[in-house]
Amino acid sequence: MSYNLLVILGPTAVGKTRLAALLADDFNGEIISADSRQVYRGMDIGTGKDIADYTVNGKLTPYHLIDIIDPSEEFNLFLFQKYFRKYFSEILERKNIPILCGGTGLYLHSILKHYNLADVEMKGERYNLLMEKSIDELKQILTSKKSDLHNVTDLIDKERIVKAVLIAEAAEVNFKIESNVHAFIIGVKLEREQIKKNITQRLKYRLQNGMIEEVQKLIDDGISFDKLNFFGLEYRYVGQHLKGELNYNDMYQKLNSTIHSFAKRQMTWFRKMEREGINIHWLDGPNLKAAQKLISSNFTKP
């Protein structure tokens, strides 16, 4: 089979980005991010953009879907698909290999299963019916359909939750379209205890190297605490700390535990994808040589 998309997926803190950049350098690739928060400008440390990882042999690997909108703007699955298709086509036109890299399960699934969300109706009968429900009822509906949310309890705006439910329902129905995407998928995993160790070490480093200041700047720029809650994880708990609701130690402990749980939910997504017949070639860690061998044996440019 002739593949035209390389996918590098895995939970947080396993070294996906650096591996993708090294592979892009080897195989004339360009990276398309599959991360639901790295699209936002000014959210760098908390989302783990780690732009330095994209520099290989003194050259910056081309990357896309990072830093494309402001935190005050909305981003969703529909927009992700729209941008992905644009960059995917442009990269192929340049005779390079698109490399989709990230850990947002729904975004990855939408490409691999060829979702068609063009017909999601945001103001129709279903919208009106959902708006009659309580926020707690809406959260339960959304939780049942989208397990990779950064923090379900952070969703407090009713209309935002309703729109998220409509998109999740459309994804669940899974309108398929004819697609020219043929993906070869590599997964990066580590032992659970190693992932937890990596997460903890990384969190300590980020907290000591500007993450709190990053969240404070977002607040200074007009981003509300409610919006920080929506972004989840680092932005929720650091925001609560800056608001005076959590002391530093409680903020660190809660955030560390929540990121561990998030990584576990990401693996649940990938196992679900495998049960659906999506073939993931798993590596034990970001093993460059093993990945190079897999690609050389199976991946040919169209």
Task: Give a brief rundown of this model.
By secondary structure, the protein is α/β, with parallel strands linked by helices. The chain has 2 domains: 239 residues, P-loop containing nucleotide triphosphate hydrolases (Rossmann fold, 3-Layer(aba) Sandwich), CATH 3.40.50.300; 55 residues. Helices cover 51% and strands 11% of the residues.
Strand content: 5-15%
Low-pLDDT stretches: none
Tell me which CATH architecture of the largest domain applies here: 3-Layer(aba) Sandwich
Shape from CA axes? globular
User: In DSSP terms, counting alpha (H) and pi (I) runs of 4 or more, how many helices?
Assistant: 12
**What is the ordering of alpha helices and beta strands?**
EHEEEEHEHHHHEHHHHHEH
Task: Find the structural class using helix and strand composition.
Answer: alpha/beta
What is the radius of gyration? 19 Å
Q: Using the coordinates shown, work out and report the CATH topology of the largest domain.
A: Rossmann fold
> Largest sheet, order of strands side by side?
5-2-6-1-7-8
The biggest sheet amounts to:
6 strands, parallel
Q: Given this structure, which CATH class of the largest domain is correct? A: Alpha Beta
Any idea what the CATH superfamily of the largest domain is called?
P-loop containing nucleotide triphosphate hydrolases
Fraction of residues in helices?
Answer: 40-55%
Whole-number average pLDDT?
90
Ends apart, CA distance between termini:
10 Å
How many separate structural domains? Answer: 2
Summarize this structure as a short list of keywords or feature phrases.
8 strands; 2 domains; single chain; 6-stranded parallel sheet; two-stranded antiparallel sheet; alpha/beta
